[in-house]
Amino acid sequence: MLGRLGTGVLAAGASQVLPRTVAAQGRPPVGRIVDVQSLGADSSGREDSAPALQRAIDEVAPTGGIIYLPAGRYRIARTLVWQNRGTGRAPGITFQGDGMHSTVLLSAIGSGPVLRVRGTPSSAPAGTTFFWGGGLRDLTIEGGNGGPEQHGLDVLGWYYGEIENCNFVRLGGDGIRATVDLELNANPDVTSSDLFVRGVWFERLGGWGFRDMSEVQGAPAWLWDRCVFALCRAGGALVRSSSHSFTKCSFSGCGWQDERSPAAQVAYGLFFDGSATTSSKQWVEGCEFDANLTAHIGARFLTSSTIVGNRFIFNDRFGRGRINPPVGIEIGSGDAGARVLGVAFQRNFFRFDIPGQVVVFDFANSANVRDVEISGSVFSEVRPSDVTRYRGQDPAGRGAAYGFVITDRPREGG
Phi and psi at residue 367, in whole multiples of 5°? Predict the structure, then answer.
């Protein structure tokens, strides 16, 4: 039988008691391995487990390693903090559960995230220190429908972390938030984050599934693979940094928190914002967009990007008597300062499940929209007279001068 050290660190060979998912990933554990129950965490959810989990973080942080959360519901009454105490790069921590339906961190926090990750010191001097590696795997962060400032994960200065097979559900605020600290260093690269997010669900949230808090490159080059953004009231994902890649993801019902709640005023499945320099080199491929409130995709700032091979569905998902969304892709959202430059929309499929007035591509504030290519689109129209494929592009006048190229197949008969 494996023994346990008094500090809560498992003895040698303890990787045998970790979930099979750890071994299956082929990554040998490094640093320490801590079972939170050995530190007093209550898997029944009756007692506050935050002190035990914070102790586990503090023990593992110097060397990096794995914090193991066996199946159960762990009530968290204060924000857990993983803070870089030094001024150099620090090893990562992996928070490892027994499965997203088995290990649950239940937020009892009125305001703040369940976990705050800060890989840079709280005061200068600071270089590119960061946490490197680690992540969250096989667990759920659940909110119990708290207030608008109840969030799941807040990150700053975390590079190459991996969030896999997790669920962010019923939080009053956002699922994941990324930010920078310009007071620590005016160069946002010094406090930015870069994560890999795979097989993660964001559902029934009062805020965004993902929210990039900064307009100065706070979360560059995040990879999103097979993630689901469903019923996120503020919107699915708000991107203000460059080089995000969304592949095989789903954005549906954004604008509502559940099937019976009132809709938000404005909500997009995926929204690109920030500035013309920060919101560039985006890639959206093989994703599905279904019944979002305002538009499936909105682009206030978007440059040198490609949106290819996606499916966009328009229907009345909740029986409200109207087709959603009324706009498929909104180009130049927001105000006259919007900039969309050098963006290609290729081989996308648009499906209309019920009759209703829809604009597929809406060129809003098009004075700062240049070199937009739309090609290979397929339209499955229930009643073609309801569908305006393009609005505001002015193909014979300013659209031609501004480099709008539309090469879709015309409607049959005209």
Answer: -60, -30
